[in-house]
Q: What sequence folds into this?
């Protein structure tokens, strides 16, 4: 655990961290990503204090698949995103054409 603190201290200056804690400043996206990586939590959890995906995705099977997909390679993730985007687009178009 101590190792995480030393890595965190190198990633975020104590003055900036104090400003974030007191809501005087907001970290950039890059800094927030580094903080989440060091703390080994999602960026979502860092920003919201909880896992927003679990709150919004009600289908447990779908949530499980998304969690597993996060462990895929970057190229595989892009393929999953492309497939899902195409499937959702088809569903949207089908719905609009049936109106």
A:
């Amino acid at each position: 655990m101590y190792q995480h603190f030393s890595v965190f201290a190198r990633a975020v200056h104590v003055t900036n961290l104090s400003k974030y804690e007191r809501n005087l400043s907001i970290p950039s996206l890059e800094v927030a990503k580094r903080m989440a990586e060091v703390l080994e939590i999602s960026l979502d959890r860092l920003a919201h204090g909880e896992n927003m995906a679990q709150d919004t995705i009600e289908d447990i099977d779908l949530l499980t698949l998304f969690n597993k997909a996060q462990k895929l390679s970057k190229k595989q993730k892009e393929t999953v995103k492309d497939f899902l985007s195409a499937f959702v687009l088809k569903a949207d178009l089908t719905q609009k054409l049936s109106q």
In short: Residues 59-97 form one domain. Residues 74-97 form the longest helix (24 residues). The mean pLDDT is 82. The radius of gyration is 19 Å.
